[in-house]
Amino acid sequence: MKDVYILGIESSCDETSCSIVKNGREVLSNVINSQIAIHEQFGGVVPEIASRNHIQNISKVVEKALEDAKIGFQDIDAVACTYGPGLVGALLVGVSYAKALSYSLHKPLIGTNHIHGHIAANYISHPDLKPPFLCLVISGGHTHLVHIKDYTEFEILGKTRDDAIGEAFDKVARVIGLGYPGGPKVDKLAREGQPNIELPKTHFDNLDFSFSGIKTAVINLHHKNPDVNKADLCASFEKTVTDILVEHALTAAKGLNIKTIALAGGVSANSYIRNEFLKLEKQGYQIYYPEPVLCTDNAGMIASAGYYNYLNGQIADLNLNAIPNLPIQAIS
């Protein structure tokens, strides 16, 4: 079978990224231009500033990705880009660039779902991983428990009804003075504390999540008692939300009789969450998660997901548009 080279473009939030991936699993290059330092001063991502920086950086990251991969445009089989979900202005930069590239090179255009990309990051880190499996997508904008039936077939088993888990981490960090981005800072400080503060858990009759209540509880506790041990508060918050994630994943896995569970998304880089899921291996479960650079937004995961769309004949036309609230089941 002929090798397939996919050029992936990711611009859904504040990372401008381009990657060349061979056969969906082998990353030849993965260039990421992060805007964290720019948005840190605002305490979060400013959409208009993100879009402007994507425009300034996208040509440079594409050129660097080709250079690092030691190939030319003529070697590319298709162009994949994130077209949702995400910030509409940021998405439009990547989609527009990918459409122009596809048209000028006479190469197929593959619209790729950002969440599918996070899931596919596991295929890069773990070449042995194949569907079906269960995947917990946890990031700043998403919390989904997904049954991966095949490479392009997904079923949502549960999702957040309010805050995404990464959003809750960021808000907690902001309130207690840790700054942005909150996830890594909460994780670091939690290692110095003890989970000795009882915090609420929200339960539903299904596998949906809710993190608004625990976030509010942490904020109220800190406001009422500014001298509370912040390390203990972070450790307690981290333990409580992790318990919820593990409980839901286990319930789904037992219900589907699936022994393979993967983590994906930026929050899957959290050390405590990883360690708690790894404990499930003693119960016979196989646990997978991407290497840290593939947990956050990057084009490698988009090229990987795009490869499987390409094999499945999911080719987009030049009418492809950005869809900021794109559902996980949607295809281009």
Instruction: State the helix count.
Output: 11
The CATH homology group name of the largest domain:
ATPase, nucleotide binding domain
- For the biggest β-sheet, the strand order reads 3-2-1-4-5
Number of domains: 2
SSE string, helix = H, strand = E?
A: EEEHHEHEHEEEHHHHEHEHH
Quick synopsis:
The protein has eleven helices and ten strands.
Structure description:
The chain has 332 residues and is of the alpha/beta class. It has 2 domains: 5-120 and 294-311, Nucleotidyltransferase, domain 5 (2-Layer Sandwich); 130-290, Nucleotidyltransferase, domain 5. The protein has helices at residues 36-40, 47-69, 88-105, 114-125, 165-175, 182-190, 212-224, 230-256, 271-278, 292-295, 299-311, and strands spanning 5-10, 15-22, 26-34, 78-84, 109-113, 133-138, 143-150, 153-159, 260-264, 286-288. Helix 9 links the parallel strand 9 (260-264) and strand 10. Helix 2 packs parallel to helix 3 (88-105), helix 5 (165-175) crosses helix 6 (182-190) and helix 8 (230-256) packs parallel to helix 9.
How is the topology of this model organized?
Elements: E1 5-10, E2 15-22, E3 26-34, H1 36-40, H2 47-69, E4 78-84, H3 88-105, E5 109-113, H4 114-125, E6 133-138, E7 143-150, E8 153-159, H5 165-175, H6 182-190, H7 212-224, H8 230-256, E9 260-264, H9 271-278, E10 286-288, H10 292-295, H11 299-311
Parallel strand pairs: 1-4, 4-5, 6-9, 9-10
Antiparallel strand pairs: 1-2, 2-3, 6-7, 7-8
Helix pairs in contact: 2-3, 4-11, 5-6, 5-7, 6-8, 8-9
